[in-house]
Amino acid sequence: MKSRKKIVIRKINTNEVKILEDMLYESIYQPDEANPISREVINIPKVSAYIDNFGQKKDDYCLVADLNGQIIGAVWVRILADEIKGYGNVDDKTPEFAISLFQEYRKQGIGTLLMKKMISYLVEKGYNQTSLSVQKENYAARMYQKLGFEIIGENDEDYLMLLKLRNT
Boundaries of each N-acetyltransferase domain copy (predicted)? Predict the structure, then answer.
């Protein structure tokens, strides 16, 4: 009998947080896959801020996509409004999204599922809104808009997007 692939969306376990290094790198949009951006990019303070000491801030929360016991993707939020502001920072009360899947699992609806679960969690926790930054060329920008994120700012390369979670 063939075993079926079963993807489970669950909270990350403390002993799995190290995988966020891989997820952070995977979250970086690669416009030229033949010449990928060096993995060293995750050591830049403005980038590493998304995972440094993850789980120690009160607003840190992460869900993973688990396929038969192996993490294939993750979505995580944290408020990056201190000394280093996140690329998608809007204020000190708005959690900012980061999401990624290993390449072979992209464009299958798993990212949308992760996003929807995280949005539900943020609503349940009483947040008013959430934000993210995405490169304009990244196909995921359309997914975020389908989920209700609106473009509230932009520069030459990126959109700053916001999702209202409740009417304030």
Answer: 7-166
* 143: in domain: yes
Q: What's the pLDDT score for residue 4? A: 56
Closest listed residue to residue 27, CA positions, set 95, 87, 108: 87
pLDDT at 162 over 50: yes
Distance of CA 102 to the CA centre of its chain: 13
Answer yes or no: is 1 within a domain.
no
Task: Say if 96 falls within a structural domain.
Answer: yes
Count of domains observed in the chain: 1
- Look at residue 3 and tell me whether its pLDDT is greater than 60: no
Structure tokens at 90: 């809007």
Q: Would the pTM count as exceeding 0.90? A: yes
11-23 per-residue burial string, b: 16 or more CB within 10 A, e: under 16? ebeeeebebbeeb
Contacts of 149 (CB under 8 A, 6+ apart): 132, 161, 162, 163
Q: What's the pLDDT score for residue 166?
A: 83
Give me the domain span that covers residue 38.
7-164
**Is 128 contained in some domain?**
yes
Residues 101, 155: Cα–Cα separation, whole Å? 25
pLDDT band at 33 (very low <50, low <70, confident <90, very high): confident
